[in-house]
User: Fold these one by one.
Assistant:
Number 1:
Amino acid sequence: MRKPIVAGNWKMNKTVAESRQLVAELVPGLQAVDSVERVLCPPFTSLMAVAAMLEGTEIRLGAQDMYWEASGAYTGEVSPLMVKELCQYVIIGHSERRTYFGETDETVNRKVKAALAHGLLPIMCVGETLAENETGRTAEVVSRQMRAGLAGVELKDGKSLYIAYEPVWAIGTGRAATADGANKVIAEVIRLALATLFNPQISQEVRVLYGGSVSGKNAADLFTMPDIDGALVGGASLKAEEFIPITRAAA
Ligand code: PGA
């Protein structure tokens, strides 16, 4: 059985002081839900402060991105070694990275490999745009992102990799995918790609999250689906009164 996971992607929100405030509000409620992997992904600037506050809890920390080189002349970048000092997880290839910062399937692939090589748990994001969805290209696009993002990746088992299915049209729009629709893409495209790239057992072990306008209202419905193992939550992860119930719904 796959243990559910709920990860909060804070995106470019919260100063250090604001992060401390949010974490103080989150910890008691999140601590109580120990059948779920709980992950907070604040901005880089808040990682140290949040890491200190999470010490002694079961709540884990993730970065929202990282570069693939271990060190060197890469102004502005953050390396896997730096992330690894503070975090267990790293989000890779979020659609906002792909859209605004020129990330490609190839850079995603390099980052996934670097994360695994450094013992970090990558949460690789895939998902189609509205135009791709409306022209019936979802399976083709998601399948390509899976194959290219995971090209040459070797896994011993499925526990070290996470996939987030995030339809771009559902992110931050208040218009989540239907539970059935998301489950179908995960089962028929994402798990199929995993079975082909690795093997059927790994395909059944990898945790696949849904992301895109997850809220306290729709979370329970999404989590009843057999192939949805949790959520990558953006906007609703910035409010304790929304994020805690979402995490409870995954239990
Ligand atoms: P949202 O973002 O929950 O605000 O739609 C999800 C994400 O981008 O990971």
Note: The chain has one domain: 5-250.
Number 2:
Amino acid sequence: MEEKLKNLEEEFNAEYQRVVTFKEVECLKVKYLGRKSQLNRLFTQLPTLAGEERGMWGRRLNSLKVKITSLLEEKLKRIDHKEQRVDLTFPSTPLQRGRCHILSTVNEKICSIFENLGFVVIEGKEVEDEWHNFAALNIPLEHPSRDVFDTFYLDLETHNKGKNRTRHLLRSHTSPSQIRVMRQRRPPLAVISPGRVYRPDEVDASHSFMFHQIEGFAVGEDINFSHLKGVLLYFARSFFSPDVHLRFRPHFFPFTEPSAEVDISCIICRGHSRKKSDNKLKVSGQQQRKCSVCKGKGWLEILGCGMIHPKVLAMCGIDFSKYRGFAFGMGVDRIAMLKYGIDDIRLFYENDTRFLEQF
Ligand code: DAH
């Protein structure tokens, strides 16, 4: 027993000097203190010894066990903390890569199409004053079209105190960007201006109190309506599909004259469902259903546009007898919904990654 104990201790001391890593110390612990260790085997022999001897060897074995344990613990403490924890071979958790929000992607795509035509991107102000948001765009205070635009005012007190003070609000459209640019720069101009806008709308599948618009306009000596048509056709064919058609419907906007709303031929049924005969077509014996996107109309509204009203040019100090301009404004959310067949605008804002990851 004496001999075995001595050898064991010497062997441990020799090995102990050599170990340097956390793993090695762990192996040593198993070898000298584990269930199959020599020390443990010696412990199991104790009951075979006579009373007094058993006590004496018991104490010696125990003190060797305590010694080995404390030496190993001491060594572990000295080993670099990092080395104990970092296992470089351990498989990592997959990285969650971020991506552009679908609205940002669509916004960028639209802007880059107009940039190809020579338009420059200029961001307007999200907080506007009443003059830029309304008056300069030929929307007088009492004009009914102002109702749908009257929205988040920021300084009510100023308004109550003095009639002449101008109030500030979260802009209800991107059209005020036209005013800001036209007052700062001289024609020729070709500008595209994206950004957030705010409306006093109840939130539902097709309305949001905040959404995105892109304003575009060009001013020059011989700008006319056909330029507007050409630019919009180029945009629609680049963004939606090369075989898309445009329809201009007369409309009213205070800041353009003449004004129009523009539709594209439905990108799902390609305008077929507007042809009456097609509605009667039977598909495998059943009546063909109306296109769910255009509701059988064959057209989808995408934007408002027109020739910039002479009054608006005048407000910006541009000689309307010399210069003409066209302008248009489109909703980015709506365009994204049409392009990707999304039927609820709220999906853009709920931050549900299951939806966002699809794009
Ligand atoms: N500002 C209009 C709106 O928010 C959109 C618009 C229509 C902009 C016609 C234009 C335009 O520049 O010419 O409803």
Note: The chain has two domains: 2-83, 102-122+174-356.
